[in-house]
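Thread: quick sanity check before group meeting

JM: Hey all, I'm pulling together slides for Thursday and realized we never actually wrote out the predicted structure for the chain we discussed last week. Dropping the sequence here so it's in one place. If anyone has concerns about the input, flag it before I start.
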Amino acid sequence: MTDQNWNSLLQHQIAWHWTDHLRARLDGLTDDEYLWEPTPDCWNVRPRGTGTAPVLGGSGAMTIDFAMPEPDPTPFTTIAWRLGHVIVGVLAVRNAAHFGRAPTDYQSFEYAATAAGALAQLDAEYATWLAGVESLGESGLARPCGEAEGPYAEHPMAALVLHINRELIHHLAEVCLLRDLYLHTGQKTRQEAS
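JM (edit): ok, ran it. Output follows.
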């Protein structure tokens, strides 16, 4: 058996999906797609003062819809909402907790009003995450996550990296599916209405 460099394997797992599948599929995302609501009563990212969800997160001109506790069933979420979740809840909060990013959360984050703005935020948080994972080296992957991860504090950083990889793949695949749905139904419906 040979020694493995687990850090590079974990980086490669997400980098391969990111570069060849996920991020490339987001190129050309339009503002219309970004904010498109395929069902009534979606959770979305909206101009401040226009949201009706019980909780409206965000510190800037845009807010993101939430409720605590979540209703059952949870409202359908838009591309903008899903990107907001990935940017903040999956990446930025972890970057702040583990890799020196300024603290942030759903309430204090400034959500993007445009697709281009959201993709720039996504790229920046992803780059910070990937550089942070690389900086862990092999020994850093074995250390406990710490109190920032709540009940998972004693789990190794490798478990967190695997979890974040899974979250990125899962949620960005949903965004890609919504883009396909928009292309085949939403865009046509909007053209017919005009």
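AS: nice. The chain has a mean pLDDT of 90. Residues 27 and 45 are 20 Å apart (CA to CA).
JM: adding both to the slides.
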